[in-house]
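Following up on my earlier thread - several people asked me to post the actual chain instead of describing it. Fair enough. Here it is, all 171 residues.
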Amino acid sequence: MASIIKVDQIQTAAGGTPTAADLGITGSVIGHHHHTFATQQQSTSDSFADVGDSSFSYTPKSDDSYLYILVNAHINVFASSDTSAGGAFNVLVDGTAINEVGSNAYEIFSGRPSSEEINEYARYIKEVRYTNTSTNAKTIKLSYRKYGGTRITFNYGGNFTTSITVMEIAG
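Reply from S.P.:
Thanks for posting it. Predicted structure:
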């Protein structure tokens, strides 16, 4: 014989709302969002700027969780006549860079011994973890900048897709 338990509310012994830890579900995925964009986004700036079409909103299910954010980006760096071309990108939550790349650092780089054209295409992966403390909606987006060279481009020619996946993990 099968049993069915139906409840309207679960409370702690003290009458409060239980946390994920109280219920024994820490470390479990409790929310998920997958965002993609395929439009070409390009910058010739040495300063960080928002990557167009990368922004989206995610509303956490819990105020005691963390957001695991995975970016799978197609990036092109180009220099018409230089010894190097590169760049960097950040993941931002509500305007704050998570694991920010320093102002003089680069993650994407191609160098040559003499000045010639550099035209590198590659797929780059970035993972960050954001400690979440509220159920307020979060705006998640990317920013990027070039380093040396002429430009940095996401989804060159609109022929590629960049994805951002958020997994909310119970705290």
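The longest strand covers residues 65-93. That should answer part of your original question.
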